[in-house]
Amino acid sequence: MSAPAEAIRILAKWLMFRVLCLGNARRYHALRGAAARAAARCGGYERRQIAFLRHVLGEGAVAVDGGAGFGAYSAPMARLAGRSGRVIAFEPLPEVFAQLERAMRRRANVSCRRQALSDRGAGAELHLPLLWGSLPEPALASIERPPGPHEACRVELVRLDALAGEIGRCDFVKLDVEGHEHEALRGAAGLIARERPLIQLESNDLRRDGPGYRSFAEPLGYELCELTPGGELRPCAADASGPNFYLVPSGWRPLDAASAASAATWRSRVSSSLKAAITSARGRM
Fold it and tell me: pTM for the whole thing?
């Protein structure tokens, strides 16, 4: 994103915080959460990546959302996994976790945990940057200490391997943990080797992060890939810009498109039949 576009984006958030929410952080996080989930539903937030989930998750799937934020990924994961599937959503920032838990309370297949994924089980400080000196930016909250103004709180770190017995099977792992992805991967190495999930992770500088990702992935039989504009996985190009990348296990195949289309058709027919039944019932009243 260009510097002017980034400045405009921050200005819009500042106006939301100061004008709409009158500087109230709780209201601001609630509004940010509602906006993020609405944008995801309408295709305005990481559209290709969220659309790609239908090729990864089906009924009964188990997914991990590391750095779940307000639930922009957790909600579509839960819909795809269905009643017999599960989503374990990790979000350590207290204000954001409260909104995540509230948004997911009607989804019985989502478990929300106020923890940060890492390679150790301990306590740590989580830093919340304050842009322009006062604007909280939860999307940049990190275990790593930022250079500018910030708030800090204590959070619990946890290794995914320590929860392997509870999680069981695992089909997909999303890691968006603001520079702590390497540690989160190391803390999940056993689960990854055993269950071989597809992994989505973030990097704003692949030249910096790519060698570490590859050194972790290649011994486990994984390849570092990116998503094409057409929504297909391919090995990362040298100039890949991200910010989202995938570790793909050898032999991985997307869910059968024909089955997905059949399920969509079935849902459409059920919806049409239900609407017709409601209309008929209203006509008899």
Answer: 0.84
Q: Is residue 55 classed as helix, strand or coil in its secondary structure?
A: helix
If DSSP codes are grouped into helix, strand and coil, which group holds residue 233?
strand
Distance, CA of 258 to CA of 252 (rounded, Å): 17
Tokens standing for 74?
């957790």
Q: Using pLDDT thresholds of 50, 70 and 90, give the confidence band for residue 270.
A: very low
Query: Mean pLDDT over residues 63-79, rounded?
Result: 96
| Residues 71 and 37: beta-carbon distance below 8 Å | yes
| Amino acid letter, 6 | E
User: Which pLDDT score is estimated for 54?
Assistant: 96
- What's the Rg (C-alpha) of the chain? 20
Q: Measure the CA–CA gap between 97 and 102, rounded to whole angstroms.
A: 8
Report the C-alpha gap between 198 and 170 in whole angstroms. 9
Tokens representing residue 220 in the block: 């486990």
In 3-state terms, the chain is what percent helix, strand and coil (to 5)? Answer: 45, 20, 35
> How buried is 244 (Cβ within 10 angstroms: 0-12 exposed, 13-18 middle, 19+ buried)?
middle
Class for domain 3-254, per CATH? alpha beta
Residue type, 141: A
- Residue 142 is classified by DSSP as B
| Domain ranges, ordered by start, for the chain | 3-254, 258-285
Distance of CA 91 to the CA centre of its chain: 10
Q: What are the CA-CA distances from residue 112 to residues 52, 94, 109, 256 (Å)? A: 23, 12, 10, 30
Token pair for residue 63? 């997914």
Residues found in the chain? 285
DSSP state of 136: E
